[in-house]
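Figure S7 source data.
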Amino acid sequence: MRIYHAAPAPARPLYALDHFDHARDDTLAAPAVEDAPPALVPAPTPAHATLDPDRQAKARRYARQRHTLALVSLALDAALIAILLFSGLSFALRDALAGAPAWEPVAGWLPARVGLYFLILFAGAFVLGLPLSYYSGHVLPHRYGLSTQSRRAWALDLLKGLAISLPFELVAVAFVYWLLAATPDLWWLWTGAAMLFVTVILANLAPILFLPLFYKLTPLPDGEVRRMALALAERAGTRVRGIYSMNMSTKTTAANAMVMGLGNTRRIILGDTLLDRYTPDEIEVVLAHELGHQVHGDIPRLIAVQTVTTLGGLFVVNLLLHAVVARFTAYHGLSDPATLPLVGAALVAFALVTLPLSNGYSRRVERQADVYALETTRKPDAFISAMTRLANQNLAELEPAWFVELLLYNHPSTARRLALGRRYAERAQQTTVAGEPSGAAIP
Ligand SMILES: [Zn+2]
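C-alpha cells for the predicted zinc ion complex:
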C-alpha cells in the first residue's frame, strides 16, 4: 500500500504496462548485467506474426489472476485504513508518539512526529503487503515465463525503489503538514503547485537519474533503426534528441518501447526484447508511434491533465478534512498526525474514482499515436503484425471484458488496435493501383 503516491515520472510506453500500478513490480529493475550491444539488424523473424491461441488462453488466465490479486490488495488496503480510522488506533499511535521531540518550528507543525507517524504506517503497510507484492511481482510473472529475474535481483530492485521513494515521500508528507499548519485553507492549492513543479523536474530527470539505476541505456549506434528514426523525425518536422536501447531482457521476456523525458532529456527508448526479434518494418511503426507522442506533446499534456486531476483530489480532501476535524474533537487540528490515514483514504478513493477517466484519456492519446504511426509509415500490415507479436510475447488479452478495458486499460485493447490497423489496410488497398501487393495476413 502506498499512503502517498509519489509523483510518477510520466512516460508513454507503446504497450500497456501492468494495469495496476504496483510501483515495485517488474517495471523496476535488476543490477546492470554486462550484455551484448543492441542488435543493429533484427534477427530473421517471420514476415507476419499470427496470433497464438495457446498464448491467448494463457493471457486470459494471467489477466484473471492479476485482477484477483489487485482486488485482494485493494481490500487489504481498505481494511487497514478502516482499522486505523475506526478503531482509535490512529489516535493511540499519535498519543504514543507524544514522547517524540515536540519540535515545532511553525505553530501546529510537528515535523518529527508527523515523520515518525508516517514511517510507522509505511513500515506496517509494507510488511503486511510484502507477501502479496512478492507473489504478484515475482512468483506469478515467473510462472507465466514473463520474468527473467532471480529472487535476489527482484529483492534488490525492491530495496532500490524503496531507497529512492521513501525519503522523497517523507519530505513530501512533512511539507504537506507544514502547509496544513501554515495555510489551512489554501494548503491544497500550494500542494498541487508543488506537485506540478516536482513532476516537471522528475520527468526531466527520470531518464538520466532514475531509469539507469534499474536498466542500462545504450545510445543506438548508427544503423538501420537509427536511420529510420531520423528519417521519420525529419518527415515529421521534429527532432529526435536521443534514441536508446534498454536491456529489458535482464528482467522480462516482454517487449516495449516508450518516449520519456522532458526538454533536453526527451528521448525514445526501445527494449532490446523488441529490437532483437521484430522486423525492420515493425520497428518502424513502433518508432512512429513513439514519435507521434513526441509530435503531439503527450508528456506535457499528461502532466497538465495529472495536475488538474490532482488539484481536484486535493480539494476534495480539503473539504473532507475540514468537515471531519470540525466534527470530531479527537483530532487536534488539520495538521494533527492522526489525520494521515484520513488524507490517505481520501486520496486513494479519489484516485479510484478518477481512474476510469484518466485511463480513458490515456487510451485516446494512445489511439492518436497509433493513427499517427499508420499515417506516417503507411505500413498497416507491419502495424498489425507488430501488435500481434506484442500480444503473443507480452501475454496480452486480445479482447478483455468491456468493463475491464473501460476501468483498467491505459492503452486500447489489442483487438481495437488490430481493427484500426485493418481499417487502414483496407483503405490502402482501395487506393492502391490494382495489381500492387497489399493486404495483411490477419489471423
Ligand atoms: Zn504510446
